[in-house]
Amino acid sequence: MNHSRIVRAAAVQISPVLFSRDGTVEKVLSAIADAAKQGAHLIVFPETFVPYYPYFSFIQPPVLMGSEHLRLYEEAVEVPGLVTEEIASAARSHHVVVVLGVNERDHGSLYNTQLVFDADGTLVLKRRKITPTYHERMVWGQGDGSGLKVVETAAGRIGALACWEHYNPLARFALMAQHEQIHCAQFPGSMVGQIFADQLEVAIRHHALEAGCFVVNSTGWLAPEQIEQITPDENLQRVLRGGCHSAIVSPEGKHLCEPITEGEGIAIADLDFSLITKRKRMMDSVGHYARSDLLQLQVNMNAKPVTVNLETDLATDSAIEFTNSGKFLPNPYISVSQAPDK
């Protein structure tokens, strides 16, 4: 592990092309090229940015949101698929690590999914938000523990969580215990107002301090005309403003560049990994400051199994099992429940 390198990170605050997966992907590809020209090694996009965050679910009652929900199904992303191939190609071409939020379609279900592409274009992590928040439960299914892992990339050891998963301290600790160097956070933006932006700033700065890592946070943004597209009701339009805070935070909890709170833009900063050691020298939450004899976390990192088990050869007891298991780096402060590899 390199403890003294410098990595340039970019947090992209951007608006989607509403109701168009292809249009939004074009904006992603353009932003990757722009950030790469500025020397970025890591580029982070907002939560479920492709095709767009389901703002409709926040302002419409379930009985009225059927058509919008179905439209999201039609524009959602299959993994792997054409969208992932395009993003992988861009990552490889510009030699950058890309973290992208998508609405993932898996047959008849949608998921809030975070994708991490390494600088060679390899998809090294696909994780699903473990518990959709409030209105989101009408849109997305639940994720599982297989995505609660940190991955090695050209930019360093990366972990990711979406939105209010940052209020789940055990989920955060599961990543901390795997010694993440860069935590990639994603929020929708353009929701609730300034209080939402204030709260998410507290969350990302606290995680940086507690984990002793960098946090790169990206939020989305809606232009005024897009808010009118989503709803003509002026009372409802008010709750689709504010809540933006794209930022990059050091392990000491300090902003490394000016946060973006309005409009589109790219926040860029250099991450000096020696600051990780500087912070952890005083307080390492999963090392010398931990008390595994008193407090432990157990994580089930098995993928949620499909309910069908197809037996192909009863004579030899061989079978195709629709299950998967994640990989995990052992840590004395965390125990892992995981199925053996088949």
Automatic annotation (TrEMBL):
Recorded coiled-coil stretches: none
InterPro entries for this protein: C-N_Hydrolase, C-N_Hydrolase_sf, Nitrilase, Nitrilase/CN_hydratase_CS, Nitrilases_CHs
Pfam families named among the record's database cross-references: CN_hydrolase
Segments forming domain CN hydrolase: 7-273
Gene Ontology terms for molecular function: nitrilase activity
Family classification: Belongs to the carbon-nitrogen hydrolase superfamily. Nitrilase family.
Protein name as catalogued: Nit6803 family nitriliase
Organism: Myxacorys almedinensis A
